[in-house]
Amino acid sequence: VKESHTSEPSAVGGVRAAEVDTDEELEWIASETEELIETGKSLLAQDKYQEALAVFEEAFDFADLDEEPTVYFYLGYTLDALGKTGPALKNLNEVDQDSGYEFYHDLVVLRGKLLVETYDYEGALDWLGRYQKANASGGSSKDTLQTAYLLSSFAFSGVGDIPKAKEALNNSIKINPSSDTASAAKKLLNQL
Fold this sequence. Notes:
A two-stranded antiparallel sheet has the order 1-2. Helices cover 68% and strands 3% of the residues. The N and C termini lie far apart (55 Å). Mean pLDDT is 84; it is low at 1-24 and 26-30. Helix 1 runs antiparallel to helix 2, helix 2 packs antiparallel against helix 3 (68-81) and helix 3 runs antiparallel to helix 4. By secondary structure, it is mostly helical.
């Protein structure tokens, strides 16, 4: 963020303004980032992924440190929707597991899925295992926990640990035996 030290009106982002207090300027930029994120989310809801990507890239230019994780998440999500797995994972790797994020559960599942898809089984087991351990007492979304166990089963299979893959599938099934995820886990369990 550049500070303006002039008392003359200046043009920033197409908006003319007189000298502003740095705090006000930072607030304006933060709200610009939030507005861009909301615009990008709206475009995602309309399946306009390329347009959303451009908006999230612009949001990144304005983002402060507190907003960067949100922008990284939506960049990763959008890139995955566009079939760009490597760049999607690169962006998602910039976001820590923090249950305070509104997108926390989506982050866990998406990054776990991409780690498995890119054959980073050890990374997937670490990422998903941290989530499972932190939420073992039921403090999480049951759907996310169930999916995390399902994804872990693929990672365990990938490293050749079939007993742990079966255990992960059984854990997934136990959470909600009548769900679609449990149905998929049951099919996979029968194949192992």
